[in-house]
């Protein structure tokens, strides 16, 4: 039995007409495959549900958050299944708890651990098309859980893993993975093949076309993922092993974020362990510190320390730092109007001078770099948010991504 997993994102099921189109796509696979469908909520639905919870409380309880926000997928799955049934295809919607899809970890950020195949396999064998709700799961105590925003990608990849699917196709509102967000830069180019490593960096650094966890899961389980459009029938992007790719570009893609904030502590009394005593309470409160720079203190007494966090963590961070008795500093400053721009590519491992070319291209456009961080296959810089488009344009050109 050849199984294929098809996942449809929010825009792809965003209206009744789109749902009808999706049903036609599903049918086109039925001659060759047994099809398992994963669906997101109709676009806007999850955000609306979250907004409602926020009107009740900024600290809406996490367990009720999961019950609430997972509701969007129930609507899209039943509509899609209803469309298939009324046009002659055997189908059925499945919520995660009905399967069940078991998760572990905290509410809002759970991870899929196990999927019971029995009922779905039986349905597949009987010629049916299961339409499974993405994004949701159930924990061992039968609490409803969710797996993080954009999590339907992960649901699809885990279903592909457990059902040993031949392929996993992620249908979305763009034709594939591009060199940079095609909705931000017209000259962005579709990438034919991209390695798991590069896709993981791009996704983690702000390219929301794929959820980062889903790429980790795909890489661990060696699942080939195809990203393509549900609007036009064109070849998409294959996310696969590095070995399968022939690419002569130094840089594969450019990503940017729009929810970073910069915190600077000025005149911090310097002593060994000072950085640890600043960051320990932040990590204990689940605040993710990203980029860090510490000046060398010229007199060995005082230093300045800058770091970035997600902007939604700023208020909490300020409170924690002000309460921290283990550090003495003169002043704390913040900037919410910063963004991280990153260039990503396995080609930079073997090519010298990439950092220089990046910095020079930005300097030519008078873009000031505030913080830098690097890994083997990426270089990130923190800049003023208003300069992001200009920076992406300049870097896209510098590294010949238009061609
Ligand atoms: P879905 O609802 O189908 O999951 P998403 O909105 O999560 O879709 O992801 C698709 C969006 O990702 C695109 O509309 C595009 O604006 C954005 N995006 C960001 N970076 C990239 C990139 N490098 N390539 C393609 N799309 C990107
Ligand atoms: N509906 C969920 C969200 O908006 C999951 C998804 O779209 O993948 O985050
Ligand atoms: Mg998505």
Overview of the molecule:
With 403 residues, the chain is α/β, with parallel strands linked by helices. It has 2 domains: 171 residues, Carbamate kinase (3-Layer(aba) Sandwich); 143 residues, VC0802-like, CATH 3.30.2130.10. The protein is 32% helix and 26% strand. The protein has an 8-stranded mixed β-sheet, sandwiched between helices. A hairpin with a 2-residue loop joins β18 and β19. The longest helix is centred in the N-terminal third of the chain and has 16 residues. The radius of gyration is 23 Å and the shape is globular. It starts with a strand and ends in a 5-residue tail after the last helix. Bound molecules: adenosine-5'-diphosphate, aspartic acid (ASP) and magnesium ion. Adenosine-5'-diphosphate binds next to loops.
List keywords for this structure.
binds adenosine-5'-diphosphate; alpha/beta; 403 residues; VC0802-like; binds aspartic acid; binds magnesium ion; 8-stranded mixed beta sheet; 7-stranded antiparallel beta sheet; Carbamate kinase
Taking strands numbered 1, 2, ... along the chain, how are they ordered across the largest sheet? 3-6-2-1-9-11-12-10
CATH topology of the largest domain: Carbamate kinase
Overall morphology: globular
CATH superfamily of the largest domain: Acetylglutamate kinase-like
Strand content: 25-35%
* Mean pLDDT over all positions: 95
């Amino acid at each position: 039995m050849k199984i294929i997993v098809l996942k449809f994102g929010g825009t792809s099921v965003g209206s009744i007409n789109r749902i009808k189109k999706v049903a036609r796509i599903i049918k086109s696979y039925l001659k060759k495959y047994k099809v398992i469908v994963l669906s997101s909520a109709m676009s806007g639905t999850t955000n609306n549900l979250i907004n409602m919870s926020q009107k009740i409380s900024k600290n809406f309880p996490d367990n009720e958050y999961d019950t609430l926000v997972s509701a969007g997928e129930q609507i899209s799955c039943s509509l899609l299944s209803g469309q298939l049934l009324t046009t002659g295809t055997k189908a059925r919607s499945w919520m995660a708890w009905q399967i069940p899809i078991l998760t572990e970890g905290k509410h809002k950020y759970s991870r899929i651990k196990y999927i019971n195949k029995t009922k779905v396999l039986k349905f597949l064998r009987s010629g049916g098309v299961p339409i499974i709700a993405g994004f949701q799961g159930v924990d061992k105590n039968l609490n409803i859980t969710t797996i993080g925003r954009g999590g339907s990608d992960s649901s699809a990849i885990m279903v592909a893993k457990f059902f040993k699917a031949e392929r996993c196709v992620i249908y979305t509102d763009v034709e594939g993975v591009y060199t940079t967000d095609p909705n931000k830069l017209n000259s962005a180019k579709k990438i034919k093949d991209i390695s798991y490593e590069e896709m993981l960096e791009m996704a983690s650094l702000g390219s929301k076309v794929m959820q980062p966890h889903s790429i980790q899961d795909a890489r661990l389980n060696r699942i080939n993922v195809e990203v393509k459009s549900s609007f036009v029938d064109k070849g998409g992007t294959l996310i696969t092993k590095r070995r399968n790719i022939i690419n002569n570009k130094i840089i594969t893609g450019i990503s940017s974020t729009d929810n970073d904030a910069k915190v600077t502590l000025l005149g911090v009394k310097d002593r060994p362990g000072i950085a640890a005593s600043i960051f320990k309470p932040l990590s204990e409160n689940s605040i993710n510190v990203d980029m860090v720079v510490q000046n060398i203190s010229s007199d060995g007494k005082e230093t300045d320390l800058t770091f970035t966090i997600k902007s939604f963590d700023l208020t909490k961070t300020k409170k924690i730092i002000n309460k921290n008795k283990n550090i003495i500093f003169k002043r704390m400053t913040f900037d919410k109007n910063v963004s991280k721009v990153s260039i990503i590519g396995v080609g930079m491992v073997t090519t010298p001078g990439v950092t220089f070319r990046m910095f020079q291209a930005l300097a030519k456009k008078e873009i000031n770099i505030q913080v830098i961080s690097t890994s083997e296959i990426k270089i990130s810089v923190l800049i003023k948010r208003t300069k992001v488009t200009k920076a992406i344009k300049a870097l896209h050109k510098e590294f010949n991504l238009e061609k």
